[in-house]
Amino acid sequence: MSEKTTYTLPIGPIHPALKEPVAFEFETEGERIINVDFHVGHVHRGIEWIGMHRNPVQILYIAERICGICNICHPIAFCRAVENAAGIEVPERADYIRVIMAELERIHSHILWAGVAAHEIGFDTVLHLSWAMREKVLDLIEYLTGNRITKAIMAVGGVRRDITENQYPTINSALNYYKENLDTIKSVFLDDKSIQMRAKNCGILTKEDALKLCAVGPTTRASGVKKDVRVDQAYCAYGDLNIDYMTPDLLTGEVNGDVYDRIVVRLLEVEQSIDLIEQCIDMLPAGDIMAEPKIPKLLAMLKKVEGDGIGRAEAPRGEVIHYVKLKAGDAPFTWKVRAPTYNNLLPWVPMLLGEEVADIPIVAASTDPCLSCTNRAIVIKGNKREVLDNEALHRMSVEKTRRLAL
Amino acid sequence: MKRLTPEEIVEYFNDKLKENIKDTKIERKTAGKKKNEFCTVWLKVDKSVFKDAVRELCGIDFPHFAVASGSDMGDYIELMYHFSVYYGERLKEISITISVDLPKTDLRIDSICDIIPGALISEREIQEMLGIKVEGIPDNRRIFLPEDFPEGVYPWRKDEKGPQNLVRDMYE
Fold first, then answer.
1. To the nearest whole angstrom, how far is the Cα of B123 from the nearest Cα of chain A?
2. What pLDDT was estimated at residue A53?
3. What residues 332-351 of chain A have any CB closer than 8 A to a CB of chain B?
């Protein structure tokens, strides 16, 4: 009788699913994954340490650069933490503009994710289709904030730019574009046989695991956990709006917690975001957009504050939480940032166990909309190392789709 | 168990853990036009009952654990575990932060991973960032710091064990 041996398959630090480097180590038995371990921290840049040597207005610029995609939700969470600690009341109009910006960010992030997820399983036409659609929302963000990506619109105590009535036609035409075209992308994702075969019953996260491992965002909602900061808490203008949890059963009638359900949740949320922006525009109250427009005065006030503040916000990928401890002085005494992916790391383990190597890219990608490239993967067989590069792993994934489609 | 108000939550903890609850605070904030309210409950507990406090919290509702933060306050380290309960229903969520002071002479805390497995990454983080020993942690390795990071240097510390010297060297 021959003895069964397992292989260890390291993937990363530049890995198949995130734009941030994470290194995976898979123990495989043939094609099956029987153990998963991961290493993070390759880009731990000490951002909080940098922040603890700067004043809150300067930190906003750093908070905006924590993540290229979540550059609305990190500043919102940071501003709310400081506002809560200092007892600053944000003007109503600013609360509404914050929601509009956060939802525009969600639309662009979810459509970006949809494209890259399609690319991961070898469906590049859908990548081009969805990224072409994403351009429209980036144009709108540029029109409203002056920037396509790093929007620089949040401020402690409000927002920096107003939305005026003469901008409404452009906003409406962009929203109408999505309302008209979203069905195309929905039917491509939800009715296509290849996508169904690759995504259904793949990378399952049970509701129990999602709760225990404290998963957040579309990852946990796809497993049937109703957790969405926008619905759970009254923050910004979300408390005023008509909003509900997006779980996959709303569309399909069932919750499986697989990759397919994560696609369903994100597509539903794009529709929801369009609706929320329309509600905000309808209800947009008049008034100021900053609690204290004079920055030196604001800083002088913040210098004297002593207290703790927590700011939570729902990013496209889930709950973001910032904690600040203010003590007399320019810089915050403590600043702690927790991005959604931090909580969605552990759920990868139950998702990937038992899956095939070719499923790694799509399962890893399914928790997070940012997917760049697999740089390399090494298969270690005894003392021999066989390098699977970016193309090889991607090819395995594409080949699996083709096999299934035939 | 019926849904508790923030005041009842504070009372519940005072009942269960008596004088080991060192300090409590309820923070209320409103937002938007309708001025809906959102509450944060801050609890400071004695380190001897920290794990009991987390267990009692699970008795209210299975909590969502967000993250643990830590501040070097000089003689002691203040750890804050940020939770929330009653999520899943419109505007019902209450944020609960349980904080505990650890004297620098005895930097040890119990692991809560057996109650909430999702706390593992935060526990690994406070071990390497603050030099706190988490007792009973299922995975003792570092998480964010590289393997060649010097021993005995803890990036969140503000005393002589902090990273000041490493930062100065970066510019050389």
1. 12
2. 87
3. 333-334, 336, 338, 342-343, 345-346
Condensed to tens digits (0 to 9), the pLDDT of residues A346-359 reads 888 899 888 888 88
Distance from CA of B65 to the nearest CA of A (A): 6
Say if A234 is an interface residue toward chain B (CB within 8 Å): yes
| A226, A240, A321 member nearest B88 (Cβ) | A226
Q: Does the A47-342 domain belong in CATH 1.10.645.10?
A: yes
Q: How far apart are CA B144 and CA B150, in angstroms?
A: 13
Phi-psi sector, B18: left (phi>0), alpha (psi -120 to 50), beta: left
Residue B119: pLDDT band (50, 70, 90) is very high
Residues of chain A with CATH 1.10.645.10: 47-342
- Burial (Cβ within 10 Å: 0-12, 13-18, ≥19) of residue B75: exposed
Question: Residue A22 corresponds to which tokens in the numbers above?
Answer: 């994470």
Dihedral sign, Cα of residue B43, residue A312, residue A340, residue A183: positive
For residue A245, list chain B residues with Cβ-Cβ distance below 8 A.
88
Would an 8 Å CB–CB cutoff place A231 in contact with chain B? yes
**b/e per residue, B97-114, with b = 16+ CB within 10 A?**
bbbbbbebeebebbbbbe
Contact A321 B66 (CB under 8 A): yes
Is the predicted ipTM greater than 0.90, yes or no?
A: yes
Chain B CB contacts of A235 below 8 Å = 31, 38
Nearest 5 degrees, angle CA A144-CA A100-CA A309? 115
**Contact residues on chain B for A91, CB-CB shorter than 8 A:** none
In b/e form, how buried is each residue of B124-155, taking b as 16+ CB within 10 angstroms? bbbbbbbbbebeebeeeeebbbeeeeeeebbb
CB-based contact, A34 to chain B, within 8 Å: no
What pLDDT does residue A370 have?
40
Query: Residue B67 in 3-state DSSP?
Result: strand
| Whole-number pLDDT of residue A117 | 85
Contact with chain B for residue A331, Cβ under 8 A = no
Domains of chain B are 6-170 (3.30.460.80)
pLDDT number for residue A398: 81
pLDDT surpassing 70 at residue B105: yes
What pLDDT sits at residue A174? 95
Q: Which of residues 87-106 of A touch B (CB under 8 A)?
A: 90, 92, 95-96
Report the 10 Å Cβ neighbour count for A316: 29
Q: Is B140 helix (H, G, I), strand (E, B) or coil?
A: coil
DSSP state, A161?
Answer: S
Q: List chain B residues with CB under 8 Å of A214.
A: 64-66, 116, 118-119
Closest chain A C-alpha to B43 CA, distance in angstroms: 12
Whether residues B144 and A319 touch (CB distance < 8 A) is answered with no
Q: Residues of chain A whose pLDDT is less than 70?
A: 1-3, 12, 14-20, 368-390, 405-406
Contact assignment for A283 to B33 by CB distance below 8 Å: yes
Measured distance CA(B42)–CA(B155) in Å, rounded: 26
